[in-house]
Amino acid sequence: MPDCDLALAPRTAVIDLAAVLSQGRRVEHLSVPQEGLWLVQITEPVRGDGWYIGEVPVGQACIALHDPQRGEARGGAVLMHADRELATAAAVCDAIARSGWPGADEVARLRNEGTAIRAQVDGVRAAILERTRVDFSELGQEDA
Amino acid sequence: MIALDHPWVAVGQRRVFRVLLDAWARPGTVADLGEWSGGARARLAVLAGLCDAATTLHDTHGILSDGDRSRLGARTAGVDIATFVLADGTRDPARLTPARGTLLAPERGATVVLDCQAVGEGPALRLTGPGIDGVGELRVLGIDPRWWIARSAWCAFPLGVDLILCDARRIACIPRSIAMEI
Known about the structure:
The complex is a heterodimer of chains A (144) and B (182). With 144 residues, chain A is of the alpha+beta class. Chain A is built from four helices and four strands, in the order αββββααα. In chain B, helix 1 (10-25) crosses helix 2 (42-50). Chain B is an alpha/beta fold and 182 residues long.
């Protein structure tokens, strides 16, 4: 199950779950959470020059969760949303899921929600795409 | 929200940057960063306000914790090329050779963040130069006097290094353009 499906789950659900999972634990930010536009760079193959082909909104966070009994769990998230609060919450969920601490099932449930939303969106997009399909072979037969 | 505190909050970092600009414009004046340092020493608030992933940092005496070093985001570099150099002012600056810039690119001279015992107390330094009306006085406690000798060797305007002196809460700036007498 792709991790990115967590980003498709309802924003408030991810943030609320992260708040619950971090209760009684210390959240240490390993880097300062960022949000903004990420310039997507490619290197052209002839001269090796860098080119910026566009930009996407990005939020990212990297945290360590400290539990008095269980120790430390680390997690990170890079989302295509310029939303550092959501990225931080996703990083907390990632830490729980990776470590298998209590709450990992809840994180998996949210991911399943994200997967369902992804399937729904993919279905809508496929239907739109289908309506734009043009069969060029039929046009060729009419011309003949 | 799982929030960060000062000095990692953008609004505080902008205030620190504003204070630094004022301190650069008026060399030798003492400014208080205690409100935005989150209980850490002023050096961390200064670095948090200045550093990001586009900058380089050399922690000469290993002052920063691993967590703070990671959160600053600046790349680690050798002392001779680092944009920012952090050092403990109570220790000897021997063999320290921060970047002085070049005549074509004097802006590549390093900014040295020097941690000391107290800014605004202790023996007086006499400062003259741009931004100072006549002769200014800055009191600094807990700096190895060899730092002043090293600074005079590094600085030949427009080349040289810029100093930010820090204690627990306060800072003062000494740009390379300033002449200093002990």
